[in-house]
Amino acid sequence: MPDLSQSIRHLRDLVSIPSVNPMGRDDIPAEIVGEQRMAEHLGHVFGKLGMDAELVGRDGRTSVVAEARVSTDADTLLVASHIDTVPVDGMEIDPFDPVVKGDQLFGRGSCDTKAGMAALLEALERVLDRGTLRRNVIVVGEADEELGSIGVVDVLDHLGQRRPDWVLATEPTELRIINAHKGVVHARIRAHGRACHSSEPLAGSNAIVTLARAILAIEEGATLLREKPHAQLGVATLSIGVIRGGQAPNIVPDRAEIWVDRRTLPDETAESVRRQLETSLVDSCIADSVFVDSCTEEKPPRETTSDSIAVKSAADALKSVGLSSDCGHVAFGTDAGVFGRAGIPGIVLGPGSIALAHTSREFVPISEVETMARIYERLLESSGNPYTVQS
User: Fold this and answer.
1) What is the pTM (predicted TM-score) of this model?
2) Residue 391 lies in a domain
3) 369: helix, coil or strand?
4) Residue 386 forms part of a structural domain
5) CB–CB of 115/364 below 8 Å?
6) Pick from 299, 333, 350: which residue ends a domain?
7) Could you tell me which residues come within 8 angstroms of residue 19 by beta carbon, excluding any fewer than 6 positions away?
């Protein structure tokens, strides 16, 4: 095997530590579930760098927070790199054996998002060793990004009033600045009927049939979303991803439900999505038997202006290594949106492609990880003081 850079050595270590998000399941082996082992490993690494590191969290869903401060006058950057991964069902490779082939390192989490953390570790080692840190930095390895972002909630509680000036979330963006992304709202919609024997269906009320009408109404209501596109993100979208109902073919079902995935724009909230869904049901005269049971924002949308400290700092760092500083947008949600909901502006920037995340042969280009380490160096060795801090 050829000599590996320090960032790739770190990445191999991180991939080999299972940190699977159970995502509500109870059939995943306990030995690969949870972020505790990963958080403890990172806490040890940060400690060796001389950084103050603490573990925060609950019930094995552990995040790690480390800080290096240079001055109260310097701006503070928070780098958020989630340490959980999606489950490993159906993977065609050993998910926890970080094999290197050419310019690719394989394994679960290699792209999403352990590569971003590994690159940061190498950059911190270089900068702290040289004594050239110019801005305060908070490093967060957060739990539960793949589901409910409870890790960010724990981290914000831990930081209290010590809020950073801006956030960089290390999702895979192929080293492009992402200053806007959609949010994610999940809604569960239930239909109620009246059960009876299927030989006399008119004696009951079929919840599945009623739910079918609701699906058509919701889909028709979603066409109105096309009338209000966002200048950068385009239109909001709706997808019905789960449908459940019935007990047996000879029983008229009295319950049925769907789960809706709604991708939101910056001016939308879970409450506004709920109102839109309920309006569709009312307009179709089925609101008496179909209702929105829950409507939860999983990831808020994010939009950061081009003149913010986040965009300007990242743009300068990218230009310094010969890369484009243009901003882009994505349809998927990130924890940058969760920090944004707390009033902290931010961007998304990291190695790898979202097209490779969660796949059966997940990998990340080694060259992008090593370039990201150089980008981090430029960020850590520069100061954001000339910029205006705004979202």
Assistant:
1) 0.91
2) no
3) helix
4) no
5) yes
6) 299
7) 32, 34, 35, 37, 38, 83, 84, 85, 109
